[in-house]
Amino acid sequence: MSKRSPSPFNRAILAAVVAGSVFLSSCDLAPKYAKPVVPTPPTYKTPEGVTQTEDWTQAQPEDTAARGKWWEVFNNPQLNSLEEQVNVSNQNIASAAANFLAARALVKETRAQYFPTVVVNPSITNARPSPGQLGSFGGGSAASSFSIQPSTDYSLSFDASWQPDLWGRVRNLVNANTFAAQATAADLQNIRLTAQSELAVDYFELRTQDALKQLFDATVAAYQDSLDLIQLQFRAGIASDEAVAQAETQLEATQAQDTNLGIARAQFEDAIAILIGQPAPAFSLPAETLQATRPPIPPGIPSQLLERRPDVAAAERAVAEANAQIGVARAAYYPNVTLSAAGGFGSTSIATWFAWPTRFWSVGPSLTETIFDAQLRKATVQQYRALYDASVANYRQAVLAAFGQVQDNLAAIGILTRQITQQDSAVSSAQRNLEIATERYRAGIDPYLNVITAQTTLLSNQQAAVDLRLQQMTSSVQLIEALGGGWDDSQLPSPQNIRTSSAAKPAATP
């Protein structure tokens, strides 16, 4: 008995196994990736004129900066409540989260190219040919044209095709999309941190307006008392009408300034409403004195900043994506092998549709190689190499900007702390000057204009003191934001996590 030769079906299986083994050992044409090197200073510098005492927090290797809900370092319950709403209801965060899910879905779409595509095509076709097509019309008898009967064709076909990833094109495309998804996840965290920081700044701005309102209300009341006194003195013939007019002018101008404060407060209140996802007309915050104090914020050492900034992490993942895209472009130099197979059943009778003799099949590989493209592939590789160089430059620029932002806010906090002490002394001096001017006016030594000048000077210095405290709180928030808000790159979703089938949104990381 002679040995049977392998059937075409078995040969197809054998070819698939061989191609699969080649696929598993396929080469990677992307350059070996290494994170770009950036110059990193050993420490942050101390601003000129600021001593390393309470005015300055020097960088230490042991970083004890706030983690997680960083805004809690300000010990403000109202701010804490608003920040919790940002993470849930802010629409920019919701949009960024959706972008991350879309990026992760793209990875899964790309991974589908690893596997064969199988299509089934069942059909039942009823047809009647034209007598003219059969030569039975015109030249034949009328009866012959009526003898043509409709026919029905029953078909059930399966088509399968697979293109093994011999040169790593799909692998690098998957890697590129995975890195892009990680960058999108970092973008999400950066947008979340930005929204949280904007809320904190707007909140302190609003509370500063409340403090200014309190200051101006008290000043208006004091100016009203002064005007009442001047009017009594005028009626008694002690003061001049000029002094009354000066007091009235000062009071009315200060009242106008007091009223104008409501514009800025309303704008900051509306900005907070937008950040927490509420309609501005339905949101309000009662007036409250600013109670938050500047917390100590150790910046750590500069090298830690590369791991703590989500925008820097996004820029670095963009470099990795660009590196993988070079491998995708290089794969175009090599031939594509496609394994295809088709089979099924076909019959003109439903009774014999699935009978074994009605089967049909075809199977075989094909190879495609571009032999002339006018240097298209070469130009494409050059393009992706240039894009890689651009992404490296963007990453280094992001790092430089991060160092600059931290240094700027460290300097601002140190200098403002010193300036606030000086400004408080100026307020005390202005208060003493007003008391002296008032006594000299009542003694008839100086005109009332001296009192007005002293009052204006005191109010100006009090405003400056309030503004400096706002700048200090704002710089503290911006320093925390510049340091990454307690985030680090270990919180990026891993490639394995991105490639899983879970469709849950990324965890909310404050």
Task: Report a brief summary of the structure.
By secondary structure, the chain is α+β, with helices and mostly antiparallel strands. The protein has helices at 8-24, 77-89, 91-111, 142-146, 169-235, 241-275, 302-308, 310-330, 376-442, 448-482, 495-499; strands spanning 117-127, 151-162, 336-347, 359-368.
Low-pLDDT residue intervals, each spanning 5 or more residues = 1-6, 59-65
Mind telling me which CATH architecture this is? Answer: Up-down Bundle
Largest sheet: 4 strands, antiparallel
Percent range of helical residues = 55-70%
Strand content: 5-15%
N-C termini distance: 77 Å
What's the domain count?
A: 1
Strand order of the largest sheet: 1-2-3-4
Question: What would you call the shape?
Answer: elongated
Give me the CATH superfamily.
Outer membrane efflux proteins (OEP)
Write the layout of secondary structure elements.
Elements: H1 8-24, H2 77-89, H3 91-111, E1 117-127, H4 142-146, E2 151-162, H5 169-235, H6 241-275, H7 302-308, H8 310-330, E3 336-347, E4 359-368, H9 376-442, H10 448-482, H11 495-499
Antiparallel strand pairs: 1-2, 2-3, 3-4
Which short descriptors sum up this protein?
510 residues, alpha+beta, Outer membrane efflux proteins (OEP), 4-stranded antiparallel sheet, 4 strands, elongated
Description:
The protein has a 4-stranded antiparallel sheet, covered by helices on one side. It has helices at 8-24, 77-89, 91-111, 142-146, 169-235, 241-275, 302-308, 310-330, 376-442, 448-482, 495-499; strands spanning 117-127, 151-162, 336-347, 359-368. Residues 1-6 and 59-65 have low confidence and may be disordered. The protein starts with 7 loop residues before the first helix and ends in an 11-residue tail after the last helix. Helices cover 57% and strands 9% of the residues. Helix 2 (77-89) packs antiparallel against helix 5, helix 3 runs antiparallel to helix 5 (169-235) and helix 9 (376-442) packs antiparallel against helix 10. With 510 residues, it is of the alpha+beta class.
